[in-house]
Amino acid sequence: MPMPPALTALAPAAAANPNPSESEIYDRQIRLWGAEAQSKMSSCKVLYVNVTGTSSEILKNLILAGIRGAIADGRTYPDALAETPTSFLPPAERTGKDTDHKDDDDDDDDDEPDQKRIKKMSVAKAIQPHILELNPLLEECEINEQEIPSIPSHFFAKFDIVVASNIGVQQAIRISKATTSHNGKFYMVHSFGLYACALIDLGEGHTYRKEIGKDKLSGVLKLDPYTSLEDMLMQKKMGDVKDRWHKSGPPMVYTKYRAILNYCERKGTFPTCTEESAVEFVELTRAFLKEQGLESSYLGDEDDLKQLANTATADVSPVCAVMGGVLGNEVIKAISGKGEPANNMLLFDGMDGGCKSFALK
Prior knowledge:
- By secondary structure, this protein is an alpha/beta fold.
- The chain has a domain at 7-85 and 121-234 and 314-357: NAD(P)-binding Rossmann-like Domain (Rossmann fold, 3-Layer(aba) Sandwich).
- 38% of the residues lie in helices and 17% in strands.
- It has helices spanning 11-16, 22-25, 27-33, 35-42, 53-64, 91-94, 123-134, 153-157, 169-180, 229-233, 252-267, 275-291, 302-310, 317-336, and strands at residues 45-49, 68-72, 76-77, 97-98, 116-117, 121-122, 142-144, 161-165, 185-192, 195-201, 207-212, 216-222, 345-349, 354-357.
- The strands form four sheets. An eight-stranded mixed β-sheet has the order 7-2-1-8-9-10-13-14, sandwiched between helices. The chain has a two-stranded antiparallel sheet with strand order 3-6. A two-stranded antiparallel ribbon has the order 4-5.
- β13 (345-349) and β14 (354-357) form a beta hairpin.
- α3 (27-33) packs across α4, α5 packs across α14 (317-336) and α12 packs across α13.
- It is globular and about 60 Å long.
- It starts with 10 loop residues before the first helix and ends with a strand.
């Protein structure tokens, strides 16, 4: 199923009518998905936990499709997004400086005569006005500026969809439980260099209708097998994770992501681009692989592991765009109930350009 057409593509129709109706604005996607699906999308609300390059792509796609969004991200802006490509903030804003000229009599900072520091605020607060600009038909984006561990579980339970990025295992499990226990859907996505991984928990009772041909749908089907996020991340040894395509062990992209999550759980933060962090990552990852029943060299030699550490939180624009488009499509399928959803993992490998699903059982 293709991604929703951008609102800008409908500009000629909007120009002809200065006050276009919602049905006119979303005419192309109503014809694509149907009025019932569009109605479900309009009544749905998606929460984005920590804005990253990939989640901002999902946010952009769904906002344009008429799906309301909310953001929970108390990290400090612009520091947290200095090296993160987003669909909402130009590079000049993410560096922490703007290009407005100072007054001639302002000599407080001779080193930056033509620039001034952008006021620091939360990431959620910085992105909030840009979302309304993108689709004025939607209400103002709700924001939560608390640190994620401080946000109570019942806050997440009120959203239909939660998309989380750059969070550790324990917080991911907590949020997914709160979301799915109230019939919500949870997506955990992380991009690192040329790779990206998404873990999906649609809840035990999720149903859908499979597409048959061009205009037909199957009867109601139940997601099977269902595996919760907790079971995915707290499963028995990864060495036992195999299928017909991965007979020697789990997919490489997934294993790399689990190594990054393992470091985060042990150190309380993701790896950084320092030699000290890289050395720690190598030691922790080799021990982790052995604990999981895999060879210590499963992810390569020391240099390979150090490279993985250095790119553990690196958002690459093309990777974010592809994964964001795929996951945006998955969210729409989950909301509408049309189309077979990915169960329960999506893996993107930028080395071959493939995005594949893998089911953890």
